[in-house]
Amino acid sequence: MPRKVEKSDETETDTLQPNEQQPNSAQDEIEHLNKMLGEVLTYLSDDEVEEIDIEYLLKNTEGLREWWDGFRERNRKSIEKEIMKSLGSLPIKELENIREQIKAKS
Question: For residues 20 and 2, what is the distance between their CA atoms, to the nearest angstrom?
Answer without folding.
Answer: 11
